[in-house]
Design brief:
By secondary structure, the protein is mostly helical. The chain is about 60% helix and about 0% strand.
């Protein structure tokens, strides 16, 4: 199970070994999360930071509904699919998510609804383009309380 989580971080998210060590050191409970839990959050983050992204629907807690309504990153062949045509934007989304997870590993421990609320709040205040830049510069933005 631990090898599977580390393998996902290393080979599917393309995180560097040093980043993975930091993630495990700062947030070891990530290793106990289910694969579906981690993948759902990563897919949400990829969609949320994509240029022009909009949140597709309200209930990301329902994995079946999520699977049916959101385009996914195809980890098997490395093709980003976000419902946008710009490959650079898709590549940038993955880089932002890599930076976000490496800089704030606890983001994967957040409840998906809490994560969605934070992203929506930041998107309303900053706009989509600035949201992506802000998360790249300061991943901790998603760690702050909304209250």
């Amino acid at each position: 199970r631990i090898k599977q989580r580390i393998g996902y971080l290393r080979f599917q998210l393309n995180l560097k070994a040093n980043d993975i060590r930091r993630i495990i050191y700062q947030s070891p409970q990530i290793l106990s999360l289910s694969q579906d839990n981690i993948e759902t959050k990563v897919q949400f983050l990829l969609e949320a930071v994509a240029a022009g992204a909009t949140l597709v629907y309200d209930d990301y807690g329902d994995n079946d509904n999520y699977e049916n309504n959101v385009d996914h990153y195809d980890y098997r062949n490395g093709n980003p699919e976000f419902g946008i045509d710009d490959e650079d934007a898709s590549c940038d989304s993955l880089k932002i998510v890599q930076t976000l997870i490496a800089g704030l590993p606890s983001v994967l421990n957040l409840n998906i609804q809490t994560l969605k609320d934070k992203v929506e709040y930041l998107r309303e205040r900053l706009g989509q383009e600035e949201l992506s830049r802000a998360l790249l510069r300061c991943p901790a933005l998603l760690g702050y309380s909304l209250e």
